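Job type: complex structure
Entries:
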Amino acid sequence: MFGRAKSDAATVVRLLAEQVRRDISFGELPPDTKLKIDDLRGRYGGSAHSFREALTLLSVEGLVEATAQRGFRVASATQADLEDITRLRAEIECLGLEWAMQRGDVRWEGAIIAAHHTLSKAEDAVVEDPDGHALEWDEANREFHARIMAACGSPRLIEFQEQLFQQSRRFRLAALREGKIDYARSRDAHAELVKAIVARDRKTALKILSDHIRGSLV
Amino acid sequence: MFGRAKSDAATVVRLLAEQVRRDISFGELPPDTKLKIDDLRGRYGGSAHSFREALTLLSVEGLVEATAQRGFRVASATQADLEDITRLRAEIECLGLEWAMQRGDVRWEGAIIAAHHTLSKAEDAVVEDPDGHALEWDEANREFHARIMAACGSPRLIEFQEQLFQQSRRFRLAALREGKIDYARSRDAHAELVKAIVARDRKTALKILSDHIRGSLV
DNA sequence: AGGTTCAGAAATTTCGACAATATGAAAAAT
DNA sequence: ATTTTTCATATTGTCGAAATTTCTGAACCT
């Protein structure tokens, strides 16, 4: 779920990185927490070197901040960070959507419809029982947004979007815990977005996606 | 205070990463070269673990590809990669310029003018003696583009631009060695860009920057 | 000839222990 | 009160080595 698509083979380093990534996203490791290698080893296992490598990885991804001679800490999560991530996500995903609409074929549309089908089920479930289906919903949402980008033809843009989405997850899950997410509006936006995409209505699709991300962080 | 303060403190890992980064950019480590830890240690020094960490860093930056259980290789550099990087750079830098023109004050303009002054000197030098002043020119060019982005207010956008510029450097220096860079045109574009920026002519500035990047990779 | 199998070599990944260095805070001195 | 010194703690880097995986190439079979 929190893995990266790069290579499916799992090394210890990647496993550790994934666990820490998850715990940061879920808020179990709050922003600015000092990440002491020895403590982490007690929690997750692994050797000191493997952990350094894992944290180095996360630091380039943006979830961890590394300072020379002062170790690692969970990246801070300020209002400015949220705004930066949101603004950028809107721009990047719209760019991806625009390119994808130029290159995407029917199979691309099909993949989006399929992902949206899963997502709408998750949306129904999460409206009924927010706490129980939050993760399922977040994953379906990730998949949906990823499918849209998939046909843009730019691996670097896709990777950047994944990074931003990963960074935004912390804020999204926090908002979710506080019941600050308007699922109904998000659901409507997703449905209309799919409609605009299959209708090849470029302008409308871009506007919906942009407003959707800026408005709800979803 | 504002952006992420990249601590200039040098650890062994960062030094190693910097050296490898440079040698990849300069083509001394050609694309797809296998990066065997033991060989690298003989060349640069450092311990095996430090090198693993350095290469992990570079792999997230995009200059090195890591495959589980199969070690590290210099990232391949195909025509598709060049096109991807160029397209993205144009979009990202234009976005940065647009935001910077909204937020940038007179000091921002001053920094650009200063950087352009240095750059134009380097451009004069590189026209006379391409091989001798290539690096100076590339560095001045980097600084110039970085200054433009500086006022955009998005640390993540700035970092992404730096990554893309770093990735494009390989292609740029290769083109330079083959004498395929049109310095005169690039110089004109830079000069006109500065003029449009200080005149606050948003539309013209964006068009010049976009055409400039797409046209010359500079 | 062409392909397969399999043992040995080489490389990667991981781990533990230890030394060197830097940081942060308490203690001492001015 | 401010500065300096000291010291415990944490980070960083090195060495050595074991476990695992991949690569290589020779022998074998069809």
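Summary: Chain A touches chain B at residues 6-7, 9-11, 13-14, 49, 52-53, 56-57, 60-62, 65, 67-69, 84-85, 87-88, 91, 95, 153-157, 160, 164 (CB under 8 Å). Residues 36-38, 52, 68-71 of chain A lie near DNA strand D (CB under 10 Å from a C1').
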